[in-house]
Amino acid sequence: MFTLVCALIWLGVFVLGLSMDSEAPELLFFAAIFLPSLAVSIRRLHDTGRSGWWVLIGFVPCVGSIVTIIFMTTEGERGQNRYGADPKELPTYQ
Q1: Beta bridge partners of 81
Q2: pLDDT score at 91
């Protein structure tokens, strides 16, 4: 959902930049969204049981983006892993 919302906001910012004939709105948007996107990507990698350092594979030309897409779209590990509890499990209250 985070990526979808960011993509929709970026589309609006892109249109705004076209109407202003400037790239400043897009640059500001990317600067504002960089750290939250990094955090979401690392959290997603943790859900699949991988280290957050795998996010750096995206810098490898061609292959890196494909591997990143595969890692981000695989289903997370069921149950608890070394990064914490499964976010899909409902908490049990006693």
Answers
A1: 84
A2: 67
- Give residues with Cβ within 8 angstroms of 26, minimum separation 6: 10, 13, 14, 17
CA 26/CA 16 separation, integer angstroms: 9
pTM for this structure? 0.76
pLDDT for 21 equals 87
For the chain, which residues score pLDDT lower than 70? 90-94
pLDDT at 61: 92
User: Cα(33)–Cα(7) distance, rounded to whole angstroms?
Assistant: 11
Residue with tokens 């289903």: 75
Phi-psi region of 91 (alpha: psi -120 to 50; beta: other; left: phi over 0): beta
Helix crossing, 63-73 with 24-47: angle to 10°?
A: 60
What are the boundaries of each domain within the chain? 2-73
CA distances from residue 15 to 20, 25, 36, 58 in whole angstroms, order as listed? 9, 10, 23, 27
